[in-house]
Design brief:
Blueprint (H helix, E strand, L loop, with lengths): L2 H4 L1 H7 L13 H12 L16 H16 L3 E4 L5 E5 L8 E7 L12 H17 L7 E6 L12 H6 L5 H4 L10 H7 L4 H5 L8 E9 L4 H5 L3 E7 L1 E10 L3 E2 L11 H12 L3 H4 L4 E10 L5 E2 L2 E10 L2 H22 L2 E9 L3 E2 L2 H13 L6 E4 L4 H5 L5 E6 L15 H19 L2
Length: 434
């Protein structure tokens, strides 16, 4: 990559940046430079990021962040799962830590903000304190979690699940990536071991709270014309595998009135799915994203359709209710068309509501920085979802241009990024003062 090309991302970030935002030790230029440096690691031809979990690119990104942690004066430690922690001692070293951070791995050909912004925002708080001479009452830790995206083994949040004791290692060691490499082989190539993974569980009474900054990956904040928002809950996914069984037949010789077309029934169901969530919950969503038709011939009436429904909400009660309503609708449509229907729930992850006390703390931090509070749910899973099952946790969302994410076009302005640092800094100072 040419030097002029290397500087394009940083230049775009700095273009139009209001330098009056550089207050209280926070530096937009430093944040832009670091986002740009990380963007070079695993850069794709489409100017995206390719740093899947346990890859040499994820490792290189961690090492770069580690160097910045050390430069900022943090004591750095990596656990057996590859999670990186940079610790700043507080006035009282015996108190439980406040932690902030995110991840540096990406989906294949992803964007440059998903994950890195949360890590660098957390680190920028330390840099700001260093410049202003501020010292917190209790310890503060910046974390880089391993393999949040889960692109390699179809299941992420491994670093955060490891420290919370949620990983089933018997299941993990059976996993194989697309290249046929075992989980053990992959982690060993990254300098990790199975034994290290097993021993990476942290005593969570050493953690007072966790706060994660993350791009919204949606368009609510853009519609509201607000830089940052406070997350009210993280949706739990419920997946339904639904099979419609009709009767395959010749497309030319079978009269229309004598058909048992599985695809016709499935198509009606797909159209109905999008209308159900809004009747039950303002924060619920449902998506049919995968569908297979059998025998899938141009001149054959479909005899079977197998599809998957991704159902999400931040409230367990309505998530369960929505799952039941969608399954019921499939059965009803099957009956109407003389089609047999079977379903099974293949995934059921409990949503994590953000505690009202934490929401209020973050709302106050937003207001203290002159920003209108906007409350919104997270439809995607994050490390805060895992930590939130064990310790008080919160999330600060940052505006995403056009709601695009997991894409090289993913973009968040530097001004919005810096606003999120100021809000995080205010919140962390509040949490570490107690």
């Amino acid at each position: 990559m040419l030097k002029t090309e290397e500087n394009v991302f940083q230049s775009k970030l700095l273009e139009g940046y209001d330098r009056t935002m550089n207050q209280s030790g926070v530096s937009g230029e430093r944040l832009a430079a670091r986002l740009a440096e990380l963007s070079k690691i695993g850069s794709t031809e489409e100017n995206g990021s390719y740093r899947i979990g346990f890859s040499k690119e994820e490792r290189k990104a961690k090492e770069l962040v580690k160097s910045w942690m050390i430069k900022a004066g943090l004591m750095v430690k990596e656990d057996g799962a590859g999670n990186l922690f940079g610790r700043l001692e507080g006035k009282n070293k015996e108190l439980a830590s406040v932690i902030s951070g995110s991840h540096v791995d990406s989906v294949p050909n992803g964007g440059h903000f998903d994950g890195p912004l949360g890590v660098l925002a957390a680190l920028e708080v330390v840099e700001a304190w260093k410049e202003t001479g501020y010292k917190p009452e209790r310890p503060y830790e910046v974390v880089v979690f391993t393999d949040e995206e889960g692109s390699r083994f179809n299941g992420g949040l491994r670093g955060s699940r490891a420290i919370c004791g949620e990983l089933n290692m018997e299941e993990e060691i059976r996993k194989i990536d697309q290249q046929g490499n075992s989980f053990q082989k992959v982690i060993e190539s990254d300098g990790l071991t199975l034994q290290g993974f097993k021993g990476s569980k942290r005593e969570l009474d050493t953690v007072k709270a966790f706060v994660e900054v993350h791009i919204e990956q949606g368009s609510t904040l853009e519609r509201e014309n607000v830089a940052v928002g406070v997350v009210t809950g993280i949706a739990g996914p419920s997946w339904l595998k639904i099979s419609f069984y009709g009767k395959a037949g010749h497309a030319g010789n079978t009269p229309m009135g004598e058909r048992n077309d599985a695809l016709v029934a499935a198509s009606e169901f797909v159209g109905q799915v999008s209308q159900i969530p809004q009747r039950l919950s303002k924060t619920a969503v449902a998506t049919v994203g995968k569908l297979q038709v059998y025998p899938n011939g141009v001149n054959v009436i479909p005899g079977k359709v197998e599809l998957y429904v991704d159902i999400r909400d931040i409230h367990q009660e309505t998530l369960d209710q929505l799952t039941g309503e969608i399954a019921k609708k499939a059965l009803e449509i099957g009956d109407q068309h003389g089609i047999s229907v079977e379903y099974e729930q293949t995934l059921n992850v409990s949503p994590v509501p953000i505690q009202e006390e934490m929401q209020q703390r973050l709302i106050e931090a937003v207001e203290a920085n002159g920003i209108k509070p906007v409350l919104l749910p997270s439809g995607a899973g994050h490390d805060a979802m895992v930590l939130g099952r064990h310790v008080p946790s919160g999330m600060i969302f940052v505006r995403s241009q056009d709601g695009i994410s997991h894409n090289p076009k993913e973009w968040t302005s530097l001004g919005d990024c810096v606003q999120s640092v100021h809000v995080l800094k205010t919140a962390i100072e509040s949490l570490t003062a107690e």
